[in-house]
Amino acid sequence: MDLQTKDDMNIHLSTRRSTSDRRIDMPWTSLTEGLLLHISKECQEESKVHGFAGHFYTQLYTVLALPTVVLPLVTGMLENTSISKTYPMVITTLLTVIGTLTGVQTFINAGAASNEHTNTENMFMSLANDISICLSKPRQFREPSDVVLERVRLKYQFIQNSAPNLPKICCSKKTNINK
Q1: How many CB atoms lie within 10 A of CB 23?
Q2: For residue 70, which of 101, 41, 44 has the smallest C-alpha distance?
Q3: 25 within a domain of the structure (yes/no)
Q4: pLDDT at 13 over 50
Q5: For the chain, how many structural domains are there in total?
């Protein structure tokens, strides 16, 4: 059995490989950089819109959750007072409002929606920052442009596909942001 050294094997493999097997990197052009700048701008705009949606859902959560905590306490304190005996509908009304607010809060799930939009906002801003960092380097120190474009495309597509739907109020805000 013929034993070959590691260097002999590398030489053997490299001589068998044809020149057509070598990968040619796509050079950086102003068109490529312009496309990445465009994607970066879109990411920043999407980040703003999802940030607005996250803030909207945080406020909605506060508006719905605070009364569902406070009203049962008030109702419990009123239970054994003269107000509940004089106006029995007050307790019934408070219990109905508590049940309605709890149902709406559960259905909308504003806390989870706020988290989803905030995470999407952060992912879009992270991609925009990655593009800025890449473009800030001189061309000769960057990764090949086709590799960067493919990575950015896949990440952008992933974020778009996993992004939560925007409420109508945020869609109107999106058109205002783009102006």
Answers
A1: 8
A2: 101
A3: no
A4: no
A5: 1
Whether pLDDT at 71 is above 70: yes
In 3D space, the residue among 15, 19, 54, 66 whose CA is nearest the CA of residue 7 turns out to be: 15
Residue-wise pLDDT tens digits, 88-143 = 788 788 888 888 888 888 888 999 999 999 999 999 999 999 999 999 999 999 99
On whether residue 5 sits in a domain, the answer given is no
Residue 59 is part of which domain span? 51-174
Q: What span, in angstroms and rounded, lies between the C-alpha atoms of 179 and 174?
A: 9
CB 15 within 8 A of CB 23: no
CA dihedral 148, 150, 151, 157 (to 10 degrees): 140
H-helix or E-strand spanning residue 141: none
Per the model's pLDDT, the better-predicted residue between 13 and 168 turns out to be 168
Note whether residue 145 is domain-resident: yes
Residue 18 lies in a domain: no
Q: Please count the residues of the chain.
A: 179
**% residues pLDDT > 90 (the chain):** 50
